[in-house]
Design brief:
The complex is a heterodimer of chains A (727) and B (74).
Chain A lengths: L5 E7 L5 H9 L16 E7 L2 E7 L11 H13 L3 E7 L3 H13 L4 E6 L1 H6 L2 E3 L1 H8 L3 E4 L7 H13 L14 H17 L8 H9 L3 H11 L3 H19 L3 H20 E3 L7 H9 L5 H18 L5 H18 L4 H18 L2 H17 L1 H15 L7 H6 L4 H7 L6 H10 L9 H12 L3 H26 L10 E2 L8 H35 L4 H24 L5 H26 L1 H8 L1 H4 L6 H9 L6 H9 L10 H8 L4 H13 L4 H11 L2 H28 L4
Parallel strand pairs in A: 1-3, 1-4, 4-5, 5-7
Antiparallel strand pairs in A: 2-3, 6-8
Helix pairs in contact in A: 3-11, 7-8, 7-10, 9-10, 13-16, 14-15, 15-23, 15-29, 16-23, 19-32, 20-22, 21-22, 21-30, 21-31, 22-31, 23-29, 24-25, 26-28, 28-29, 31-33, 32-33
Chain B lengths: L10 E7 L3 H9 L7 E7 L6 E5 L2 E5 L1 H4 L2 E5 L1
Antiparallel strand pairs in B: 1-2, 1-5, 2-3, 3-4
The chains are: A alpha/beta (727), B alpha+beta (74).
Chain lengths: 727, 74
């Protein structure tokens, strides 16, 4: 016998431990963060427990179901439209009063609710005692005690949820919030109006709709407009009449009155269930903040953390690189040994292995960067970063929370742009999305490392830091510019919780790090692999047979010359001759390759675009590499590798010396880095911009704007540098 | 007096939350209601935003937003 699947939604405040409980139930891997609102996307998990298939849906963490932010709208719509069998409301026990606000709204939604009193241990530590039994009685719903990060109570919680889902009783009707007489009268009147005029067509409980109309809820009004048709105007008028009455009676907006009353209801409950012990415990979080958000040392510590993050990423990350390079070298020689010479071998060696290899080398850097960001999130420091930075961000027309997406932009723009969802106002969100691409993502790093490392030697670190700084400054200027041009008016309120610091769990840190790095690896396997092949094809076709013939003839000539010299020479001089011969062959194959590249499709495109790239000091090969970077920024390096015909020689700095030989100077390298920093975002980012702004217009605007800024800045660097007599 | 005039380390009781629309309601929903006791934990290093302790939770608020909240010094 098969049972139907039971749908269980998890609701709760940000930082209530909701994600931890979700992980404990489903065992799936996903982000757990301390930053308020990190769980933006709907996450699901299917489990089989207590004899039933349970579909667990993790709703975004919200403080309320008033539809202000995307999270709240998502959460409310899910409950309204998908009608989960049970909603588990996860309550942060040490923040009982505020948690109950969401709970009362859930109860009003007319769904079956189970409470999980989570993090009881934290409440104990703060001297709070909660009578769970009484709470259950007062609200007429099951209450289960849990400690999410120690897997305590999870099984009981699911058992209670399943039991409630299967019980035939309709959602508990009593013990909901009762408003004061006047408000109740208004609700009654509207409720009657709704039932008589719309009756069965009403999508939700009429009392709830009446309350929402009194609160002037835009989304509900929209839905009613679709249902009521012609009758909507009259309905709206009836609602307005009640609102006007209440406004007059309370001398305040009705939605403020209802909020106040809900808290009044909660205060009543709190009085009965919560006892605060007089014992004042030491609050560790507060003590940490005495230092980390201190007036004098707070900012320096913040900048130190950011600096340390970059140092760790770039210096420690450099150690495993040699090993990875050797691994790819080994692979290349293995393939070269196994396969007969021909275009298949060429494709594998020059297209795929060297393309993916040049990028794979940067995996350690990326793992470390994501580890640091996960550490900031899981400890709760991210919220402090927003607290410290809000003043500055506000000056440029942004919200302190915008700092988080921007910081994540240093890792990868795609999750960063998705993180902009935590911003409540649409204009803040779009603005943040538009400037995030100037945050130099980790995929651009390989380009800087090659160019700065090759042309600035010991000062490479400083140059790269300068490049990052340029991106930050330009994003700030852009923010200011756009705020005054497109988005005048008030920005969103900065009401944000600073959650208690938590000791991060190593496992969760590693999961975060891995989840994000996986994205990078997947792109390496997919987009970058395809990109490398496409570039290789464009660079090798159409084939120029006369080049190959020339190569064959030249090789034969060198071979003959070598044979005769070898025969004639004394034993002791033979190794020298051998080395010279190898070198000559190598140089020949390099020359043929780059000549082939010049005559290829890619070469033709590059030459056609020369007038565009010339003023910024980038030659046609650099131009091609930059174009190929649209697929993914990492590809710029591998394309340079192919175009400058870097030999398969596993010797380090092969690309740098090839670039130098091709006439690149420190100035052109700098100009190219600036261009790479700023120009059009990669394919995946462009797709994310399209999705998150909900508009192709903003996407095209972003592409055009970033690319123009990039060209202009690179032009300034190159031409300015030449005027100063550099390069 | 207004909330933003309070010094670090002072207690107060909220008298009225002013302002309009979403901001006002958001502040109320975070538990900053009339009659609520609040403690000014600190101001950020750049003097804005400020950190309050409300019902055991730490909430940060911009100074200009705090200016909309009238309080009674206690």
């Amino acid at each position: 016998m098969t049972h139907p699947t039971i749908t269980i939604a998890l609701a709760g405040n940000p930082n209530s431990g909701k994600t931890t409980i979700f992980n404990a139930i489903t065992g799936t891997r996903q982000k757990v963060g301390n930053w308020p609102g990190v769980t933006v996307e709907k996450k699901e998990g299917l489990v089989h427990r207590h004899g039933y298939d349970l579909k667990i849906v993790d709703l975004p963490g919200t403080y309320s179901l008033t539809p202000f932010s995307i999270e709240e709208i998502v959460a409310r719509n899910f409950i309204l439209d998908e009608s989960p069998d049970v909603v588990i409301d996860i309550i942060d026990t040490s923040n009982l009063e505020r948690s109950l606000y969401l709970a009362t709204q859930l109860r009003e939604l007319d769904c079956k609710v189970v409470f999980a009193l989570n993090m009881m241990d934290m409440a104990d530590a703060r001297g709070l005692k909660i009578d769970a039994h009484k709470l259950s009685e007062l609200l007429d719903l099951p209450v289960i005690l849990t400690v999410g990060n120690r897997q305590k109570g999870i099984d009981d919680l699911l058992a209670a949820a399943v039991e409630l889902a299967l019980s035939g009783t309709p959602p508990q009707q009593k013990r909901k919030v009762r408003y004061n007489q006047e408000v109740e009268k208004a609700i009654d009147a509207l409720q009657r109006y709704l039932t008589t005029h719309l009756g069965a067509a009403l999508p939700y409980h009429p009392r709830w709709i009446a309350i929402k109309l009194i609160e002037d809820d835009a989304i509900i009004k929209e839905r009613l407009a679709a249902i009521a048709g012609d009758g909507f105007a009259a309905l709206l008028e009836a609602a307005e009449k009640q609102r006007a009455f209440l406004k007059d009676r309370f001398n305040d907006d009705p939605e403020i009155v209802t909020t106040d009353e809900r808290y009044g209801f909660i205060t009543g409950i709190i009085k009965e269930v919560l006892t605060t012990s007089p014992l004042e415990r030491v609050d560790i979080s507060r003590n940490i903040d005495l230092v980390l958000t201190n007036r004098f040392v707070g900012m320096p510590i913040f900048f130190f953390f950011i600096w340390a993050m970059f140092q760790l990423t770039f210096t420690v990350g450099a150690y495993p690189q040699d090993g990875i390079e050797q691994l790819f070298g080994l692979l290349a020689s293995g393939v070269g040994y196994l396969l007969p010479p021909g275009w298949v071998e060429d494709l594998l060696l020059d297209g795929i292995i060297s393309g993916v290899g040049t990028v794979g080398v940067f995996l350690p850097n990326i793992l470390l960067l994501f580890f640091c960001i996960a550490l900031f999130e899981d400890t709760g420091y991210m919220a402090r970063a927003a607290f410290l930075m809000d003043k500055i961000m506000h000056l440029v027309g942004l919200h302190g929370k915008s700092f988080i997406p921007m910081l994540m932009g240093f890792g990868c723009n795609v999750p960063a742009i998705m993180a902009a969802r935590t911003l409540e106002s649409r204009t803040d969100r779009i603005l943040t999305i538009l400037i995030t691409p100037f945050m130099s993502c980790s995929a651009k790093l390989p380009v800087y490392i090659v160019l700065a490392g090759g042309f600035f030697g010991a000062r490479a670190g400083t140059v790269i830091f300068g490049i990052y700084l340029t991106g930050i400054v330009l994003s700030i200027l852009t923010g200011r510019l756009f705020r005054t041009l497109f988005f005048r008016g008030a920005d969103a309120p900065f009401v944000m919780e600073l959650p208690p610091y938590r000791v991060p769990m190593l496992k969760s840190l590693l999961i975060h790090m891995w989840d994000r790095s996986k994205m990078f690896l997947k792109r390496m396997g997919g987009v970058i692999l395809v990109g490398s092949i496409v570039i290789w094809v464009l660079a090798n076709f159409p084939q120029a047979p006369e080049l190959r013939e020339g190569q064959v003839q030249e090789t034969a000539r060198l071979e003959a010359q070598f044979q005769s010299e070898w025969q004639a020479a004394e034993q002791s001089r033979r190794p020298q001759i051998q080395a010279r011969h190898d070198q000559a062959l190598n140089a020949l194959s390099q020359r043929i390759k780059s000549e082939q590249a010049a005559r290829s499709f890619l070469g033709r495109i590059g030459h056609a675009l020369e007038p565009v790239f010339d003023p910024i000091g980038v030659d046609w090969r650099g131009g091609i590499a930059l174009l190929s970077g649209f697929v993914a920024k990492e590809i710029v390096v591998s394309t340079l590798g192919v175009l400058y015909a870097v030999t398969d020689d596993p010797q380090a700095n092969a690309l740098e010396s090839a670039l130098r030989a091709a006439g690149m100077t420190p100035l052109t390298a700098l100009s190219m880095m600036v261009f790479v920093l700023l120009y059009l975002p990669c394919l995946a980012t462009v797709a994310a911009i399209r999705r998150e702004t909900g508009s192709a217009g903003w996407m095209f605007f972003s592409i055009a704007y970033t690319t123009s800024v990039a060209w202009f800045m690179a032009f300034l660097v190159y031409q300015g540098g030449r005027l100063l007599g550099l390069g | 007096m207004q909330l933003n005039q309070l010094k670090e380390g002072s207690w107060a009781v909220i008298e009225r939350v002013g302002g309009s629309g979403a901001l006002r309601r958001r502040i109320l929903e975070m538990g900053l209601l009339k009659g609520t006791r609040i403690y000014v934990e600190k101001y950020a290093p750049l003097k804005d935003p400020m950190e309050l302790i409300v019902k055991g939770a730490h909430i940060s608020l911009r100074v200009e937003e705090a200016a909309q909240i009238s309080v009674l010094d206690v």
